[in-house]
Design goal:
single chain; mainly beta; 8-stranded mixed beta sheet; 3-stranded mixed beta sheet; 0% helix
Length: 128
């Protein structure tokens, strides 16, 4: 028999993690939005029913954070993500190396943050 009681070698660390799926609805436009706050956000729904929406970058992203950017309507208004725009704290790097726009369709992007910038991992072929 073992006859020993297990004891940890040090304090047991516990960490409070942010919610797994937090959602934000974004509808600010038509002016270009440089620093959309995505602190603790995993799903960014874009409501472009009233106007075009252009996002050049984000603020508040952390290393390893995934962000699903999703267009909610098929309105004729555009949703555009700008590639490597210098006016943002956290820039967006899209796989084509160009700005990408959704017009008249549902769809979106999957982005991952490295703590400094955001990278498109969705390889969206449906964009103009």
């Amino acid at each position: 028999a073992w006859n020993k009681q297990w004891e940890p070698w040090g304090p047991i660390v516990s960490v409070e993690l942010p919610p797994v799926n937090t959602v934000r609805i974004f509808s600010t436009g038509p002016a270009q939005q440089d620093d959309v706050d995505v602190n603790n956000v995993n799903v960014l729904f874009i409501d472009c029913s009233l106007n075009d929406i252009t996002i050049s970058g984000f603020v508040g992203g952390v290393n390893g954070q995934r962000l699903y950017v999703t267009k909610l309507c098929t309105a004729a208004n555009d949703v555009t993500l700008m590639h490597n725009d210098g006016s943002s704290v956290q820039r967006i790097f899209l796989h084509k190396g160009l700005d990408e726009t959704l017009t008249g369709v549902y769809g979106g992007w999957i982005l991952v943050c490295n703590g400094t910038n955001w990278y498109d991992v969705s390889h969206a072929k449906h964009v103009l």
